[in-house]
Amino acid sequence: MKTLKFTKNGSTEKKPTFKEISVSYGIRRVSDGVIFSALYPKAASVQVAGDFNNWQPERAPMRRIDEHGTWETKISLAPGTYRYRFVVDGRWEQDPFNDKTEPNQYGGLNSILKV
């Protein structure tokens, strides 16, 4: 279902669907690694922590790449299955644009990535 947004001058513009947004955010493989991309407009810092960096978020800081609050980082990963979470201003969160998850020992969900 497509959603239209009405502007002040009466014209309409298409508001992106969740599926369209999901293509822009989440994880995507590139030739030399994996790009993690997230949307956190109000965040001061975003990091990635996972079993690939011993769950140490300071080892994978993301950088804000636009005024909309898009954050990205690229990590080189060998083939395999990985678990990860975003750390947003100190709060651990699952990737909202990755529906592959599994429960973790803390009562939350880890996002899953297969390379």
Write down the Rg: 16 Å
Report the count of strand segments.
11
CATH class type:
Mainly Beta
Shape: globular
CATH superfamily: Immunoglobulins
For the termini, the CA-CA separation is 32 Å
Q: What is the CATH architecture annotation?
A: Sandwich
Q: How many domain regions?
A: 1
How does the helix and strand content classify structurally?
Answer: mainly beta
In round numbers, the mean pLDDT is 85
CATH topology (level 3) name: Immunoglobulin-like
Order of helices and strands: EEHEEEEEEEEE
| Secondary structure: helix percent | under 10%
Looking at this protein, list some descriptive labels.
Immunoglobulin-like; five-stranded antiparallel sheet; 11 strands; about 5% helix; disordered N terminus
